[in-house]
Amino acid sequence: MTDQRFRNAAGGRIDRSRPLTFQFNGRRYDGFGGDTLASALLANGVRLVGRSFKYHRPRGIVAAGSEESNALVQLGTGARTEPNVRATQAEMHDELSAASVNCWPSVEVDVGAINSALAAFLPAGFYYKTFMWPPRAWRFYEWFIRRAAGLGRAPTEPDPDRYEKTYAHCDVAVVGAGPAGLAAALAAGRVGARVILADESSEFGGSLLGEAATIAAAPALDWVAGAMAELAALPEVRLLPRTTVFGYYDHNHLGLIERVTDHLGPRTDTTLPRQRLWKVLARQVVLATGAIERPLVFDDNDRPGVMLASAARTYANRWAVRAGDRAIVVTNNDSAYPAALDLSEAGVNVQAVIDARETPPDAWREPLRVRGIDLAAGRTVAAALGRKRVEGAEVYELAADGSRLIGAARCYDCDLIAVSGGWSPTLHLFSQSGGRPRFDAGIAAFVPGESRQAERSVGAARGTFSLAGCLAEGFAGGAAAALACGFGDGVAPPVPATGDTPAGPLRPLWRVPTAGHGGKAFVDAQNDVTADDVELAAREGYRSVEHLKRYTTTGMGTDQGKTSNVNALAILADLTNATIAEVGTTTFRPPYTPVTYGALAGRSVGDRFDPVRMTGLHQWHEAAGALFEDVGQWKRPWYYPRRGETLHQAVARECGAVRASLGIVDASTLGKIDIQGPDALKLLNLVYTNAWDNLEVGRCRYGLMLKEDGMVFDDGVTARLGPNHYHMTTTTGGAARVMGWLEEWVQCEWLDMRVHFTSTTTHWTVVAIAGPNARRLLAELCPDIDLESAAFPFMAWRDGTVAGIPARVFRVSFSGEQSYEINVPSSCGVALWQVLMTAGAKYDITPYGTETMHVLRAEKGFVIVGQETDGTTTPQDLGMDWIVSKKKTDFIGKRGLTRADCGRADRKQLVGLLPENSKDTLQEGAQIVAEIRPKPPMPMEGHVTSSYWSAALGRPFALALLMGGRARHGQTVAVSSYGTTSWAKVVPPIFWDKEGERLRG
Amino acid sequence: MQYSIFNLIREGINKHKGWPAAFRHPEPKERYDVIIIGGGGHGLATAYYLAKEHGIRNVAVVEKGWLGGGNTGRNTTVVRSNYLWDQSAFLYEKSLKLWEGLTQDLNYNLMFSQRGVLNLCHNLHDLRELHRRINAIRLNDIDSEYLTRDQVKAFVPILNMDPNIRYPILGGSLQRRGGNARHDAVAWGFARAADRLGVDILQNCEVMAILRDGAKVTGIETTRGTIRAPKIGAVVAGHASVVAGMAGIRLPIESHPLQALVSEPIKPILHTVIMSGAVHVYVSQSDKGELVMGAGIDTFNSYAQRGSLQVIEDQMAAVVELFPMFSRLRMMRQWAGIVDVCPDASPIVSKTPVEGFYVNCGWGTGGFKATPGSGWVFAHTIAQDRPHRLNEAFNIERFSTGELIDEHGAAAVAH
Question: Min CA distance, B91 vs chain A (Å)?
Answer without folding.
Answer: 15
